[in-house]
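Tokens for Gliding motility-associated C-terminal domain-containing protein. Go.
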Amino acid sequence: MATHIRAGEITARRISGLTYELKLTAYFDMQNGEGAADAQNSIFFTIGNVRSTGTPVILEAPRVERVPPDIGNNTTRNTYILNYTFPTAAAYRISFEEDNRNNGILNIGPPPTQSLNFYVSTILEINPQFGANQTPVLLNAPIDLAAVGQRYIHNPNAFDADGDSLAYRLFVPQQSGVNGAGVNLQYVNPNQIGAPGQTEGGASPATFSLNEVTGDLIWDAPVTKGYYNVAFTVEEWRDGVLIGRIVRDMQIIVDDARNDRPLMDPLPDLCVEAGTFINQQIKATDKNGDRLTLTSTGGVYQNGLIKPALAAFNVPQQGSQNTVTGQFTWQTSCDHIRLEPYDVLFKVEDSPAPGTPNPGLFRKLVDMTTLSIKVYGPKPTGLRAVAATDPAGTAYRLNWDAYKCLVNGARVVIYRKEGCTDIPEDVCITGIPAGSGYEEVGRVPVTQTTFLDNNGGDGLRPGVSYSYRLVVLFPRPGTTGTEPGSLVGGGESMASDEFCLKLPILMPVITNVTVDSTSETRGVITVKWIRPAAPSGLPAQYRLFRATGQSGTAFTLVATINTNLVAGAPDTIFIDRGLNTQVNPYNYKLEYWTTQNGQLVKFDETETASSVRLEQGAAEPTRVRINWSALVPWDNANRVHRVYREDKTRPGTFNRIADVPVGPSQNFTFTDDGVDRYAADGTVNVTIVNDSTYCYKVETVGSYNNSQIRPAVLYNFSQILCVSSSDTTKPCPPVLALDPLNCDSLNAHPDAFCDSPTFTNHLSWTYPQQVDGKECDPNVSAYKVYYARYEDETPGLIATVTIPPAPLATTYDHDGLTSFAGCYYVTAVNRFGAESAPSNIVCKDNCPMYVLPNVFTPNGDSKNDIFQPYECPAFVQSLEFRVFNRWGAKVFSTNDVNINWNGKTNAGKDLAAGQYYYEVTVYFESSKKQSDPTTIKGWVQLLR
């Protein structure tokens, strides 16, 4: 009854396969429980599958180490170890409990706290999908005292040898429950005892917090003396998945102190290339003149947690003065590269100076800080590329220098993008920054120094200047790079310098598709392209094709332009006239024909480029929203586009009113509130009013990001769009109908759905002219179809159906369904983007089809031996099937949808031939989550 465990945690180290070393590290209060600590020669682990209700195993673990008599502040440490082979891969809870805690703990209950046992647990995930896994280890003992009115800090100095990412969270202290699980105790945060209190700096109230990233547990500052118990978890994450959790339960003893705590100098985070020698000074001071002891813990000192060479920490005048300086040194190497930083904890503790009155009443206080060190791989060097011959077409052979860190399992990752772009360099940012436009195109072993890029066998685009960079990925510590997920979280190098191919452009490139005139019959679009790099004089030909729609593919030839590629000839421009640019965008492509053996032969064709299309966004009062788009081979993102509005005082004159920055997401939109935000061409502000018309056009700004394409910046206009700020006549809700199922007909053909893997619901609706005597807006441009699987769910948008000007009725087929059951409604959308209220909601259910035979012959001849439904049972969610003999006794039951009754009882005994009666309660899939049951009764003749 006097265990008095101050703190403890369970860790697990993988030995091989499914065999692990399980370790309990327990810290005992020697002042009140020395006898219990001495007598605790063994403990018991409870080990159970987290996802199973089976009975856990309870195994005894012997004490393998005791660090007596005192590791600081009247505390001793006992270590207990058990080697255990888990039966299979799974998530396991490993727990320990022991009577009793101290009495009089102030922040947990119910009292008396000496009746509460001490309990901790650890979750260990053994999963081949994640690769080998072991828990972190906590290298800093929880033995330090807290002082009233002074900031208290504890950090467990957790280190994960697998290189997993660690996160820290506060946890409620527990006592043991059923089957090895824990039960939360009554708990309040320590800072709420004697509240409100104040921090060491004088702010109110006192605070208690845990930094989820660094693991710093800070209580600033205690108010009331006494015992407090707190707990926290150390979580390990791999590739965004939580794969383990340690609970440390610890006791904080708060006392009055006749001294002030010492202070550590803050330390910067370090990011170093592998091979760097780190030589960092660590300094601490004590304003009371107390003698200081400076110590350090971390995985970098321990062989087995990292590969040599190990770090060292030297303090020349330890414990002799009130200012102490230590020197941390570490020769990093390629073996130390990993994604997560190495955290090195430094702790300073004071002791009474000579001449201190009543040194027996002196309470040692501490401060601590963490040095975070990220070790990254060297930058690959010497990257270059040359054109290569390949059956796929255009391809390039990349070569680079032999890499410095030939770590087993590391991979060189090759990245490519179109155009040449600088990326920011920062020693703490490795790899390729997100949003830089590079995509991975291949990876090879780190020993390889060459790669052929042929776009995966599809060939690259000719004439495009591609940019390449290299990054080296390293396996997680303790892996070879071949295990599942071993290259996730293993560290990486900085990106190599860019190599950019500046290739002669062998094909024309479209540079402009700009709308010069907006009209239904006399619209004009100018198309421009650049001349390819080819000798002049030989006959060549451009053939320009046009399709209606931005993504249109029905191309027709609109111009054939003969050329001999002489510089200055007007042969790279075509003005396309007589178009309906008011209604339609257009898509263009260019074929390039060259002379070969005296004949014109098609060399290649360009990527398509569309005109800019301007549309009105959702209608708003006093504002006009416009959106625009263009499907073009150049890049319109990361540029500033220009918006123009017609000056109503000068019809036909457009005033530039805004420059709109467009980011990488290419969100082309602008909302006009009437303010002219571009003053260079004069300021023309307007007041946006309802039902007044405003006309706009947009000029996009883009580039190929290729120094050989001139002009470097490409400007293209949209059509002119005249819109209203709002629409006074809102669309009316449509009237929806859903095709019914003829269940009588289908029941006559029970195999009707057996060959149909998916099903289709046919929707049709009409749009009314009037509702409640009010006219409906006839300018409907689209319908939106909404669907919910169940009638109590909110329907979601599944389709937008555009319609021709007439008729105002349309249909939609919702296909690919696994069931007919579901609910629908439809809305109408007008040309200003205003959406009507929902139509009537229509729900549909499946036919209750379940047909059983009335005879079967379970005689073992493989013919009609099994009683089961005809063909396939359609849309059955679940069922209960019961069979009775002629006296009403139940002889067989099952929940199998296909029944599969073989003429035996549930105990496996053959039933006699004769007539039996059955009752089936079937739950069919329907538009209700909890469908109504259908009961089917009948008889069957069993023949032997």
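The first helix runs from residue 30 to 39.
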